[in-house]
Design a protein that fits this description.
The chain is an all-alpha fold. The chain has one domain. It is built from 14 helices and two strands, in the order H-H-H-H-H-H-E-E-H-H-H-H-H-H-H-H. Helix 1 crosses helix 4 and helix 2 crosses helix 3. The radius of gyration is 20 Å and the shape is globular. The two termini are about 35 Å apart.
């Protein structure tokens, strides 16, 4: 494997993470006009059309064995419908930058699930990482009111943490189910299921009536969510995994809250709270410790330090 191939794969992974990070900002920007379900219907609709065109251009078979239909249903409900509904609803009451920091807590939930169901052993360093990440979450959900500090763990933060837990469950299932189809095809059926599940809510809420009130900027956010987030990001993430080891690709996840923060400041003009940034950094350090990646890095640096 050449360095150029690795560099290309790293570029794909970086783009995917950047798109996912900015997705919180685009969702937040449109929620003022559309309810969460109507937003998701339009997003999934655009994504399904885009993914279908990609599959047809690549001449991939669209049929799947009936044996794997239950697998796709489970992944579609958890990874697309439940996950996106929780996130979109959470963004009604919390900032995009806070959502970006909180989503980085997901590997901690994944590790806890591995302890409970896969009997993975927990070390002192990993336990310390979990505690540190929890402290980071508490800092993010804390607001300054004048000179006092208040905890404001509202429903939005609770939904965002449930979304993070849900993503951890989805990730474990995705790995264990081992569906023998290209990631692009799996993503297409998951997005299609998300579209089918959210459409009844659009009809109930008469969400189509709000579409005419969208500005060009808000339509641009929806196109970005449908094409770049639901389509290209998943596709490029799969291409990166074809070249790089999963552990190395997962390191790019630490860039997601940074992409969210930058986009939130530039596009939504959100204020950057020092306490939130500190909490986010603490979460990332804790997650690195949970993944067992911090100690080897420190040891390697120590060995390379001249004495």
């Amino acid at each position: 494997m050449t360095n150029r191939t690795r560099l290309t794969a790293s570029f794909y992974a970086t783009l995917s993470i950047s798109f996912w990070g900015v997705s919180f900002v685009s969702t937040k920007a449109v929620l003022g006009k559309l309810d969460p379900y109507s937003l998701l219907v339009v997003r999934f609709g655009i994504g399904v059309i885009f993914l279908l065109l990609l599959l047809l251009l690549q001449r991939n078979r669209l049929l799947v064995s009936i044996k794997y239909i239950p697998h796709l249903l489970i992944l579609g409900v958890l990874g697309v419908f439940v996950h996106q509904v929780l996130q979109a609803t959470a963004l009604l009451t919390i900032s995009a930058s806070s959502a970006g920091w909180l989503i980085s807590f997901s590997p901690v939930f994944t590790f806890i699930l591995s302890i409970l169901f896969l009997h993975e052993k927990i070390s002192f360093a990993k336990a310390s990482g979990i505690v540190l990440a929890i402290i980071g979450v508490l800092l993010i959900t804390t607001a300054r009111n004048g000179e006092s500090i208040q905890f404001r763990f509202n429903i939005g933060f609770i939904l965002m943490m449930l979304s993070t837990l849900n993503w951890a469950v989805y990730s474990v299932l995705l790995k264990s189910l081992k569906i023998p189809y290209p990631p692009l095809l799996v993503t297409f059926y998951m997005s299609l299921l998300g579209l089918l599940l959210t459409t009844p809510f659009l009809i109930r809420n008469r969400g189509w009536e709000s579409l005419s009130h969208l500005t060009q900027s808000e339509w641009a956010h929806l196109l970005f969510l449908g094409i770049f987030v639901s389509g290209i990001a998943y596709w490029y993430w799969a291409k990166a995994l074809e070249v790089l080891e999963a552990t190395k690709v997962s390191m790019f996840l630490y860039l997601e809250p940074i992409a969210t923060l930058v986009a939130a400041v530039l596009l939504l003009h959100e204020k950057v709270l020092l306490i939130s940034v500190a909490g986010g950094i603490i979460i990332i350090i804790g997650v690195i410790m949970v993944n067992g990646q911090l100690l080897p890095v420190l040891l390697n640096r120590f060995k390379k330090t001249p004495r």
